[in-house]
Amino acid sequence: MSLSHTSSVSDTQSQNDRVLGPRFREKITSAKAAARLVQPAATVGLSGFGGANHPKAVPPAIARLADEQRAREGHHDYRLGLLTGASTARGADGVLADAGAIAWRVPYNADAELRRQINDLEVDYVEVHLSRLAQQVREGYFGRMHTAIVEVAGITADGELIPGSSLGNNQAWLDEADQVILEVNSWQPIELDGAHDVYQNLGLPLNGTPIPLKHVNQHIGSPHLHVPIEKVVAVVLTDLPDESPAFTDPDADSRAMAGIILDFFEHEVKAGRMPADTLLPLQSGVGNVANAVLASLATSQYRGLNCYSELIQDGMIDLIDSGVVGFASATALALSPAKFEQVKKNIGFYRDHIVLRPQEISNNPELIRRLGVVAMNSMVEADIYGNVNSTHVNGTRVVNGLGGSGDYGRNGYLSVFMSPSTAKGGAISKIVPFAAHIDHTEHDTQVLVTERGLADLRGLSPVRRARTIIDNVAHPDYQGALNDYLERARAKGGHVPHLFDEAFEWYARFERTGSMLPQ
Amino acid sequence: MSLSHTSSVSDTQSQNDRVLGPRFREKITSAKAAARLVQPAATVGLSGFGGANHPKAVPPAIARLADEQRAREGHHDYRLGLLTGASTARGADGVLADAGAIAWRVPYNADAELRRQINDLEVDYVEVHLSRLAQQVREGYFGRMHTAIVEVAGITADGELIPGSSLGNNQAWLDEADQVILEVNSWQPIELDGAHDVYQNLGLPLNGTPIPLKHVNQHIGSPHLHVPIEKVVAVVLTDLPDESPAFTDPDADSRAMAGIILDFFEHEVKAGRMPADTLLPLQSGVGNVANAVLASLATSQYRGLNCYSELIQDGMIDLIDSGVVGFASATALALSPAKFEQVKKNIGFYRDHIVLRPQEISNNPELIRRLGVVAMNSMVEADIYGNVNSTHVNGTRVVNGLGGSGDYGRNGYLSVFMSPSTAKGGAISKIVPFAAHIDHTEHDTQVLVTERGLADLRGLSPVRRARTIIDNVAHPDYQGALNDYLERARAKGGHVPHLFDEAFEWYARFERTGSMLPQ
User: Which architecture characterizes domain A3-238 according to CATH?
Assistant: First the structure.
């Protein structure tokens, strides 16, 4: 028995009707009581990916416990280790960071206050390829997981958990944690039941078997999450919306890059490397540029495209509506409240066009390679040889984190990295002699795109890559200085020519003069 | 019908008996005549991996044609593009480089003269993850392949090709080239027939299916290579041995690192992360350090280990003899002539313990991850955050190339990188503030080993990684300077602290003073 779309339960009924399993009902308690079950130095696994489906009641209750202790005693004991799928939102990372309750954080963060604490070295932050974190937790890299706090949409009479707007690492956390707190959120659309595909039979090495996924739209697992009732120490009822980040409308640079990428798709179709009708499965990273690429597809001639990605955002729903996208696989549905209402109302339609998977599957190298995914991700900067920095401004201060860019970029059939050619009104060049932080090496970056054009690096030696990058995607204001660097380095020789006494000088010049431009 | 171990043909019979297919016999010709069929600006795919199984007659004949033209006309027209499995030897890369006949080279080289030409920017050199090259050629990244020159051990009456001591990209080159020259080498042990597993059903994306390999010792393909007779323009008979590189006996540093790694295996067994009896499948890179690790296994208590690697070298045969290794999968058998004789004489035994696969399979990310391979590879240097340089001394001059280090390092269950802590009698530290070339980012390097100890980086944030590396694997002479760099960088803040005005200064100091040691 399930709370599926054929069930009598709808979101207009009382929150309590979301918990049908009788042994789970017995554990219903307040957020504050649940928060008290989390030890102050616990390692905690939260649900949540891209602002979707994080627990919304217990983390703020923990933050309040910390604040209360501090008010009482002048300090508090909270030093949590926090693991998630990816980013949560203000209501989880944010409030806990505000309370100073986070000691370490894995694998991704997008909260501004927590970012400050990470860059001020107050919080230990470990970026991990999103596909690999669950396995690393199983192997014990982060010690025992004391508590999992997982938000779900409901609990069936049989005690199965109906997932919400993301899957992330939820099943892994339910498996690994010593104790489990469930948040049952009646805002989460129970109508999505049946659109999840929990495949968790990944086993340990040597017990590994091929993952049987051959097509983007295939279901290979269970629609529900599972947890032994003995581990569940609290069930908390909530009714709070997701806080997925909003996107700005595409600006001129983003529209230019999107147009360049569409032209490139046509070029690849003509070369016989992509099917003319459906291209190859697309992955589109987080951010405004990636969003603009999706938006530009809306006016294209393509129909029935497949997406194999992390996030389904508002723009993707529009593409499904228009038939441009035939099917979208992801691990999270990060939608605005209005879009969510639209999806809920037409769930019969969308359930045939969407599947949510655990991030071990959505980001799985085996599958990304097998399916031939075209990976399109933003970058902070690239160097003249095509090494890409996805994460650290000026090489030291992290923005968000690695996320899935390595999972897709390394294993995709094609990996495209995108950025405007300059930042800060031209004072910063996104093409530099030597990237101050490298997340993706020249061996894994095949195409760079800026508003100036596209650098197709496939099959090129380092010096040819450099010329292609400087000529095609660097801003004209910086082409002279980049060519000067390259030519003087070439005169010294070496397969990858560099001048190490000035390789990083552009950053120092910017600090000194406010611009990377040669004076 | 095949020339298998049950056939009447042995290597004591005439070379001509290795070519049973009548339509192939008609094409037997001289190396010089075959060489004339290769256009001077052709893109050529050679067999060959790790000094094993490269064509030994036609490349020298091409070099002679170039030399003759130069003697005659003062210059020659030879500007070949050369693609292989991995390294060949003097008899292929070497003689062609000597003749100045190579314009560009993909994906790996170990020849000294060709290395000089690459670093002097006379030859374009493109390093590619070894697992990915065949796919990139199929996709046309390197244009049409005009000619494949593939060495085999024999040709059956049915026209099937019996492979020699490596598989590499041989089937891919036979598939992709416009014309094919076969070298049938009677030195190649025909007795190996049945030990190859040519799985080539990789298809293009969207047609991809799971690769059905679940165990290191499984056969999933054909024992033979296939080529349409219409494409074969010449068959050349040879009788020349492979030129696999010799290893020196392990020195004290290598023995120390091997001991450290064996201790680590015990630690992992105790932590429940590796089976006590057979550990996990081992991959061991090229070089003396990797060889020393294998040698040290000989005196261990392990029995029935599995290896899933690129190369089977002499040491591996000894481990199979003693029962320490139960099964070894690779793409090349790079043995000394004496070892090869031993293998040929006891082929019935070794055929149960060895399989050779195409490098798309031996180095396949899907399989390396599924099997849980422990990847152990040498490095040029690492920086304090665990970014690893595998290829370029001082960041500019390539040694050999990326090879399979990324295939295994990125996808292995564990990735270990190894090097003595210093070079040039202590004048160079292998642990530096910022690696001058990065092949493997901090997200893909989990364990560093030097003769000083082991840095276990799993689950650590950047600053913790730095402290672990400096304390455990840096040489004591450099620990002070590295700690000083780290602490002053930390004072400036940032998730990955750096001082960019001095990050590369150690290289300049070495150039200036002959030592990286602070003066």
Answer: 3-Layer(aba) Sandwich (3.40)
